[in-house]
Design goal:
There is one protein chain. By secondary structure, the chain is α/β, with parallel strands linked by helices. The chain folds into two domains: 100 residues, Urease, subunit C, domain 1, CATH 2.30.40.10; 307 residues, Metal-dependent hydrolases (TIM Barrel, Alpha-Beta Barrel). The strands form three sheets. The protein has an eight-stranded parallel β-sheet with strand order 7-8-9-10-11-12-13-14. Strands 2-6-15-16-17-18 form a six-stranded mixed β-sheet, with helices on one face. It has a four-stranded mixed β-sheet with strand order 4-3-1-5, with no helix packed on it. A hairpin with a 2-residue loop joins strand 17 and strand 18. Helix 2 packs parallel to helix 3, helix 8 packs across helix 10 and helix 11 packs across helix 12. The longest helix has 17 residues. The protein is globular and about 65 Å long. The relative contact order is 0.16. Bound molecules: zinc ion. The site of zinc ion has 7 residues, from loops.
């Protein structure tokens, strides 16, 4: 038996998100091989055990949308208290000066922050490709591999700059052929297929208001050819609906369908301003929605129709969104936000803590087109998040799972990705956190000073 195939029983957790695994899970190599019932024992002798009697066990959380580089522009005074379009135009000029060393620090910091919150699969939507950032995705792949985190990276793009009536400065847009060629290069070099993939690539034009129709169509064609997924922002604000009506003579979802994107290959960030008919069409198509509650509240964008979308058949996942509109990258914290925001629309009996945990795990996994992560049953990847409740905020809590959301869990004690512990005693493995923060903060200062 090789070292990696040794078995480890995460024994008798305090509570578990899947009651079929109430006695814990047995890990061999990168996978879960057995779910142990409450009070039970594994069917075969195990090599090691981990006493989880003080831990709440969840499948590793899965993030579906982020912009890592935005950790460098958190709580940035000129962009505060603005709606999406003026917020974007303020920040584009800062982001246009990003360089590779800044992006590397931003990506590492965001991935570590997610990991420490219990997230085992990070996602990023990087669409700023100035001349200094041509290797942005290559760099993110390298960082994800070094940290041992699973990553769904997307090759973003912008092709309509201010000269052509778009919002971004001309220096961060690229021509369509350059984008397509680079997308193809990245897929061929980095996209892993099948169960256990650690790095996947998807194609992600930024939004209907920053790319051409041709690029939307060509991205869909390329994604089908290479069997990779498609991602974009859609239906985030009423301004966007007006923009699409004015420019394309149709609503955002009609435009999306027109470009060949209304399918189960796509997942959309935000997905707020859909009417009843559109919700049904998304459900029939199986198009995923990355729900970003904090960002939607910060920018005053509106509220995603999560439960209607799910009932219609659309996968609904959870996302922290970029750190200039959240401004944290804490997926555990985002679960609380999703539950509280949801209860302004739905009754507490419908919008339960279990529903939100479902979005942050299996729902998110479905958005990313994966059925090998997001659960605790045998065959799933060994991606786990374990939370302890010995903090002031949890003291006196009766229901451990509900307490994670209601009392505001924000830091996992243990996180495992593909069978490897990546967070131990609430600290990331192989990362000098103080040094990373110091370098990241310095990079943020430099970026602001460049304006
Ligand atoms: Zn976004």
């Amino acid at each position: 038996m090789t070292e990696t195939a040794r078995t480890l029983w995460i024994r008798h957790p305090l509570a578990c998100a899947d009651e079929r695994a109430a006695g814990g899970v047995v890990i061999a190599g990168t996978r879960i091989v057995e779910a142990v019932p409450a009070g039970g024992q594994p069917s075969q002798a195990v090599d090691e055990t981990f006493d989880a009697s003080r831990h709440v066990l969840l499948p590793g959380l899965v993030n579906t949308h982020h912009h890592f580089y935005q950790t460098l522009t958190r709580a940035y005074s000129p962009a505060l208290n603005k709606e999406l379009f003026p917020w974007l135009t303020t920040l584009y000029d800062v982001w246009a000066n990003l360089d590779e060393s800044q992006l590397a620090l931003a990506s590492e910091l965001a991935m570590v922050e997610l990991l420490m919150s219990g997230c085992t699969t990070v996602a990023d939507h990087h669409y700023v490709f100035s001349g200094a950032l041509l290797n942005a995705i290559d760099q993110q792949v390298e960082t994800a591999r070094r940290l041992g985190v699973r990553a769904a990276l997307t090759r973003g793009s912008m092709s309509v700059g201010r000269d052509d009536g778009g919002l971004p400065p001309q220096s961060v847009v690229q021509d369509e052929q350059t984008i397509i060629d680079d997308s193809q290069r990245l897929i061929e070099r980095y996209h892993e297929r099948g169960d256990g993939a650690m790095v996947t690539l998807a194609l992600a034009p930024c939004s209907p208001f920053s790319v051409s129709r041709e690029l939307m169509q060509e991205s869909a064609r390329l994604a089908e050819m290479h069997d990779v997924r498609l991602h974009t922002h859609l239906a985030e604000t009423e301004d966007e609906t007006d923009y699409c009506q004015r420019l394309f003579g149709m609503r955002p979802l009609d435009y999306l369908e027109d470009c060949g994107w209304l399918s189960n290959r796509s997942w959309l960030a935000h997905g707020i301003h859909f009417n009843d008919d559109e919700v049904q069409r998304l459900g029939r198509a199986g198009t995923g929605i990355a729900h970003c509650p904090s960002s939607n509240m910060v920018l005053g964008s509106g509220m995603c129709r999560t439960l209607e979308l799910e009932a219609a058949g659309a996968p609904v996942g959870l996302a922290v969104d970029g750190s200039a509109s959240n401004d944290h990258s804490n997926l555990a914290g985002e679960m609380r936000q999703a539950m509280l925001l949801g209860r302004l629309r739905y009754s507490p009996s419908e919008l339960t803590h279990d529903a939100v945990i479902r979005w942050a795990t299996r729902g998110s996994a479905r958005c990313l087109g994966r059925d090998d992560i997001g659960g605790l049953e045998p065959g799933q990847q060994a991606d786990l998040a374990l939370f302890r409740l010995d903090e002031l905020r949890f003291s006196g809590a009766e229901n451990p799972l509900a307490a994670l959301l209601l009392c505001g869990a924000h830091r996992a004690d243990r996180v495992m990705v593909a069978g490897r512990w990546r967070v131990v005693d609430a600290l990331p493995c192989d990362v000098d956190l103080e040094a990373l923060m110091a370098r990241h903060d310095e990079a943020a200062r430099r970026l602001r000073a460049a304006l």
